[in-house]
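Two folds, back to back.
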Amino acid sequence: MPKELISHLRELRQQGQLAQAQQLLTRAAAERADPQLAHLAWQHEDFWWRALQGPRVLLRRRGPADAELVRRCFTEADFMRRFNRMAAPLPASDAALHAMLQREQWALAEETRALHWTIEQGGMGRGFVSVVDISSSHRRGEFLIGVLPGTGPWVAPEAAHLALEFMATRMQLERLTAYFYPDNPQALRLALKLGFAHEGVLRGYLRAPGAGRSDLVVAGLLLDGDFFARTARIRRRLLGCDHTHYPAHVNIGAETLASLAGDIRA
């Protein structure tokens, strides 16, 4: 893939000119059939930047407009203790933070190996959903979610299921991993309710300066037919619609589909 093309596409995206980037790719594809170009065009499709709307919650790609919320959350020790204790420090200046969030918002998932959404409820930012350490070849990533104190009890589950459906249907991910500190059992319980399974403990996996080594609890989720079947009712309750359009890699038997359809009509 020509470096000049990659650089030009990145420049167009960073200027918010996604349509122009798409047109450039269309012209390039017309000149020659190239699987890499087709894959790059897929990475520039509108859905990557389209907001995910639920009954109560909106997920949108995190960007410069969220600078104040990002700084607030990253300076709240309790929020970061539950969301991401190993997050890198934010830039000191507001200008640098805005620039960082601008790059993040318009980056391709395969460039940064991450996607971040802001959770919005009633026009106010309430937290973040992220998938990081994305491996496209293995179709997996690490799942993180965090909401501010005082957020309603249904906000995080609704946001999580919106994101999980996007990861399965649009990103074509098949497996997610989530990590938890042993002193945060509530987060693990919430993950298990979402459909994750407790997979074990990584002994002494992390080392924090001045704090010694720390274990990490591991939970995993396969975005397969079993997951979509066993969460159909709660997803319908949270998202308010009939979710029967499963990802291509999901295999759900005809009897299960008929059963789910009966539950939805009931």
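---
second:
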Amino acid sequence: MRKILVFVEYVTAANFFARIALADCGSSYTFVSESLVINRRLKRLGLECISPSSKSEYDPTYDYERQKFHSDLRETKPYLIGGFTEDEVWKASCRWVSSAASSMELSDIDYVFVWNGHSVSGIATKLTVALFPEAKSAYFELANLPGKIFMDPAGVNAKSWLYRNPDYLLEEPMPTDAEWQVWRDTYLTVKKQSQYAPPQVSSSMSVADRVLEYVWARFFGGLYLTRKDEGVAVIRSLLSLGRKSAFDTEVFSFDAQKPFVFFPMQVDHDSQLLINSSLGNRAALEAILECDKRDVVVKPHPASEAESWLWLVDLAREERSRVHIATGNTLSLIESAAKVYAINSTVGMEALILEREVTFLGNSLFEQLSPERLRCFILRHLIDLDFFSSEPVSERVLERVFRQLSVPIEQKRYEEV
């Protein structure tokens, strides 16, 4: 029987991994999470969940491994935007591993599952695999294509093994033109719906659960909250002054007949923006205006807080400004634009699907995708598993997950960097 350790920090990710665990009768799953809501949900489903506490005494057992993770610790969201020190992130990660070790024999672990990996759970995953090299890590992430998941043994996006070995995609059977055309037409039909919004825009946790999480973390828990000012966000939610969609804010019209380039912004605290790019949204727009003399149509991310791009409104209002704000359908904007500039968001991949010219300003897996690689990436490499669904995971999909995990890293020509 396979033994799988799952480090999880977010409710929706816990729901996702629980669906896999409940469908996988051939494996034993142990979850580790500091979230009270996650612990309660998983235990109601009959799944084992360990809850490390920041109030427990720190055990320096693993400190001899710390130097290996210096750069990784500084690339976590708690460190970058949460106000936590490198030392706090390291100690929290060690508590997660220690808690798991106190309940099970980690040397028997076959796989360590983690979502995204740019937080405490990611460091805990790396530490577990460093201590027990026989265990394989599996990083899961949204593919941001309907019903598809990305999975990799080393990380996500520009931190992935696939980013360093993109030709591996060409070892997969090449999709036929007909197969690609059917998928592309279906995808574009869905995305061109005027009311389409990505599922991740909606919060996965109720205000009541957020309050419960904050109180638990404040007095008993630890670092699964990625910001020390999370209490402010909770209070704003209670007052109905929380996250405001960019779509609720002022829109500026522009002459669609005039040549323009399109720049889709990302959420300011997006881990891909923080970790895989030296440019934020504002610096990226300044770079575009400097190198391209055409008008720039900018679309704020629908999940961003309106307050985070007030600077953009001021810029668009300036006399003779070449900057325009749009909130229309993204695919329509891509099709109408002379060129697309993206930092490292999925919109850049959508531009590739539409065969438009695109420049990536940050490190992105998508910049590695030639037309042939793109087809294989979408139709052969990504896993057909809907992150946001509540439906049971099919046996076919489960087999697909473990088949991809079973490919030896040596066979994939994995090279440490």
